[in-house]
Write a structure and sequence with these properties.
Layout: H1 12-26, H2 33-40, H3 44-51, H4 54-68, H5 71-77, H6 82-97, H7 107-110, H8 120-146, H9 156-175, H10 180-192
Helix pairs in contact: 1-2, 1-4, 5-6, 6-9, 6-10, 8-9, 9-10
InterPro entries: DNA-bd_HTH_TetR-type_CS, Homeodomain-like_sf, HTH_TetR, Tet_transcr_reg_TetR-rel_C_sf, TetR_C
Organism: Kineosporia corallincola
Protein name: TetR/AcrR family transcriptional regulator
């Protein structure tokens, strides 16, 4: 005979959103389990039961961040032209990096900038996560070349990498205090350099 456990006394999505913010502000290594339980409003056993260990929680937090805070990236990929895809992504990214209700910068950059030697898998995980976005953008730009929306000699992989370098550089500058206007000025220059 099976018995049901006691139902959770917290909203897992809301708790995960609070974990996102803690990891975003302090990075993986700078965040303790105590920091997480305090922010999430749960005790250690509940954290482990619902989210696993710190590494698993971080991975889920990055997934939640990609789903919620980076929804603009998916929206940009649906734009009709390569220029609109790139400009839409970079402008929405600049806005997201400087939201007053969120930490400055980007979780996928701040989360693993300074990882201890034993946590190299976190930096690798974040790099792989960013590369996934770059590959999706390159795939969209390949389609733009095939549709003659970009010149035939355009290297979609290099162009996608360029866009991501601008985005990631803006994230670093936002975390160092650059404001939205400054980031958009960088986007203006980047868009002028596009092959369309």
């Amino acid at each position: 005979m099976t018995t049901q456990g006691r139902p959770r006394g917290f909203d897992p999505d809301a708790a995960l959103d609070r974990a996102v913010e803690v990891f975003w502000r302090h990075g993986y290594d700078g965040t303790s389990i105590g920091d997480l339980t305090a922010a999430m409003g749960i005790n250690r056993p509940s954290l482990y039961a619902a989210f696993g260990n710190k590494d698993e929680l971080f991975r889920r937090a990055v997934g939640r961040y990609a789903e919620v805070d980076m929804a603009y990236a998916r929206e940009a990929l649906g734009q009709p032209t390569a220029r609109e895809v790139i400009e839409g992504f970079l402008r929405a990214n600049a806005d997201a990096l400087t939201r007053p209700d969120r930490p400055a910068g980007c979780l996928s950059i701040q989360g693993g900038l300074a990882c201890a030697a034993g946590n190299g898998q976190i930096a690798e995980f974040l790099a792989a996560s960013r590369l996934t976005g770059e590959k999706l953008l390159a795939e969209r730009l390949r389609r733009a070349v095939a549709e003659n929306d970009l010149p035939a000699d355009t290297d979609p992989d290099a162009l996608a990498r360029y866009v991501m370098v601008v985005s990631e550089g803006n994230a670093v500058h936002a975390s160092a205090g650059a404001d939205r206007e400054q980031l958009h000025a960088t986007v203006d220059l980047a868009v002028r350099a596009l092959p369309v």
